[in-house]
Structure formats: C-alpha cells, structure tokens
Amino acid sequence: MEYQSFCNTEILFSNMQELEQTLLSLNKSNIVLVMSESSVLRWGMSTVIKKIKMNCEKLNGRLTWIKEVAANPTQKDIVKSLKQIGNRKLGIIIACGGGSAIDLAKGISAFHNNYKNDKCTIDEITDRIKNKKYSDNEFVDIIAVPTTAGTGSEVTQWATIWDENKHCKFSIDSPQLKPKKAIIVPALTLTVSPKMTLSTGLDSMCQAIEAYWSKHTTPIVQEIAYRSVELVIRNLQKSVEEPNDIVSRENLCRASILSGLAFSQTRTTACHSISYPLTILYNIPHGLAVSITLDKVAKINAGHFPNDKQLFSLFHEYGGIKSWLDTVSKDIVTMRLSTFGIIEDDLSVIIDNAFTSGRMDNNPVDLTKNDVKRILESII
Fold first, then answer.
1. Last residue of a domain, one of 159, 187, 215
2. For residue 240, what is the enclosing H or E element?
3. CA torsion, points 132, 134, 139, 142, in degrees to nearest 10?
4. Structurally, how many domains does the chain consist of?
C-alpha cells in the first residue's frame, strides 16, 4: 500500500542574515541558483553569491547561476537552463524568487541528466512533460526561498510550465519535486509591487478556497484552508496600501504556506481551470485570472460542499466575495475581463480551453460549456 505524506518539506521562517548563513553552509560542489539578476541587486545578495561560488570552487565544483527567469516559464526556458548547466552531476538547486523561479527550478530538477543536458530539445521536453517521463537520474533536491506570498510552490509537488506555442498549460507532477526545505523570509516580500502583492495574495486565497470546496477535501484540509483565507482577508489590503508593514507581510507568507499545504492535498478546481486560457492567451497575471471568476463559481458551488456557510461567513462583514475583491483591488485593477482587452467575441476560444483535466472535474459542481459561458459573460 502506498502512503501520501502530508508534508515532507522542512519549513523555516527566517531573516536575511540567517538565510545567508544557511546558503553559505551548504557543503555542495555543484549548485544551481535560479534567481533573477534584478532580484540579486534588489536584495544586495551579490556578495553572498560570490561566496557560494568560491565555496563550490574549493570543492572542485561550480555554481551555475540562472539569471533570466521568465514570468511564465516554458519548455524553452527549461532547455536553455539545462544547456547552461551542462553535463554535470548537481548537488542542489536553490530557487529564490516568485512561483516562476521555483517552477523553473522544478523543471530543471525533473529533466536534468548528467550526460544529456547539452542535447535536450524543446520537442523532447514537451514529449516528456506530456508523458510524465521525468529524470533519468534521481531528482535534484531543491531549497525554495519564495519572495512573493501566494503561489505555495515552496511546499507542492508540481510546477506550472506554459506552452512555448501558447496552446496550453502543462503541469510537471511528482512527489520528488517537493522542495526539501522552504525558507520563508517575510522581509523579501517588502519590495513586491502593490499589483504583484494583490495578484499573489489572491492566488493564495483562491488556492485555499478551491481546496476547501474540492471534491477531495477533508476536515483537516478545510481547517488549514479556512485559516489561510482568513489571513489573506485580514492582511492583503494593508500590504497593498502599506507595503512596508512587516506584520501583514509575514501573515501573507503564513497564508501562502497554509494554502500550499491545503491544495497540495486536493488540487484546484474550476477557477484555476478557467484561468489558464486567460493567462496563456491574454497575459492576465495568474492571481488575477484565478480570482476574477471566484465570486461566480462560489455562487454555483454554494450548498454542494461541506461547511460552506463557515467559509462564506468570512466575507460577510465585507458584503460578500465580490465586494471584498472590488475593495482590495480598487485603484490597482478593475476585476472585469474588459480591463484586459477581452471582448464577447473572445469567449468561445476561452471556453474551449477552460476544461483542464484534474482541475475542472475536481469542482464540487460539474460545469458545462454553457455554465462557463454564463460565468464569463457576467464579468465582461
């Protein structure tokens, strides 16, 4: 009999000094760092990276720094990273950044090959993603240092890889992709812009809500998800309006971890499924894309999952989900499809691509294309 571990990632809340000490204590000869160059400059980590490089060289190894991290990594980004690493055995991957950096690190871990990195192609990676043919060697361990509060990727076993040709969204999925350690440094989130803070916070909340009402939810998942939603509701607006408030930032980091733990047990549902073409085709940031349908999907799901009234009661003092969303996003973005240039003629292609297996069929109410059409028409 196989058993699924609830969480086998070591989770540490830390500060910048302790983070640097942890990274410098790694006794690994070949290290990959996935972190944008702008992030390194923003947080003043150039000296630390030089020291990590020197430590690797003392062990006759090398630090490979992946400096370019796309907002939505594709197969091409994985191939480019593998070729930069070259044919060498890796000791560990450090992913420091938002969900995209951690997802790219997972892509490297899943497809790294000590002998074939220089020969990999986009077609090969695409085929292996589709057929879940991952590493020929053991997966490379990952240390995740999230710099946004929302994706929960630091504790989950999958990574989102966006199709280079914009046809679909791929998922790399394996228990071995759960980071071995997640180091949470709330201070790193202080430089996140209000719009990104909003987007990642809403992503965290949607993941938690969808875990709460998923067909695969459990009492423990609901307890964890409830607390995550509560933390986002109480702290997101303050983090947007007062970016330097470290207390609200830390609370959003807690919400992100709890959200990741919750939906790692259940996966997401209709809101995420509908969001994928919104991001692929119209470049709507992921957190905004998943939350834009949340109120409408919630109304459909109400009464069809356990303890629904307890969940929705969190929004009562704000006038409901839509009212809360409109308030927290005010002055940043209007939560309508037309804001992102989508018109009624675009809906058919969105609907055709809105049904992702393992997401849409995980919703407590089975939605049809007509249901999705009505949802989208109501938020044009």
1. 187
2. helix 219-241
3. -60
4. 2
234: phi > 0 → left, psi -120 to 50 → alpha, else beta; which? Answer: alpha
Q: Residue 341: CA atoms inside 13 Å, Cβ hemisphere, count?
A: 6
Distance between CA atoms of residues 24 and 30, nearest Å: 13
Judge whether 286 and 279 are in contact, CB under 8 Å.
Answer: yes
What's the burial of 197, exposed, middle or buried (CB within 10 Å: 0-12/13-18/19+)? buried
Q: State in Å, rounded, how far the first CA of the chain is from the last one.
A: 48
Q: Which of 232, 242, 152 is nearest to 190 (CA)?
A: 242
Final residue in a domain of this structure, among 187, 210, 244: 187
**Residues 6 or more apart whose Cβ sits within 8 Å of residue 347:** 373, 376, 377
Amino acid 97: pLDDT? 96
Q: Do residues 233 and 178 make contact, with C-beta atoms less than 8 angstroms apart?
A: no
Beta-carbon count within 10 A of 254 CB = 19
Q: How far is Cα 329 from Cα 326, in angstroms, rounded to an integer?
A: 5
Distance CA 31, CA 175 (A): 21
Structural domain containing residue 214 = 192-378
Phi then psi for residue 359, to 5 deg, are -120, -65
Check: pTM over 0.85? Answer yes or no. yes
Is residue 186 within 8 A of residue 250, CB to CB? The reply is yes
Residue 358 lies in a domain: yes
Q: For the chain, how big is the Rg over CA atoms in Å? A: 20
At 1-49, the pLDDT tens digits run: 677 788 999 999 999 999 999 999 999 999 999 999 999 999 999 999 9
Q: How far apart, in whole angstroms, are the C-alpha atoms of residue 186 and residue 191?
A: 10
The 10s digit of each residue's pLDDT in 245-284 is 999 999 999 999 999 999 999 999 999 999 999 999 999 9
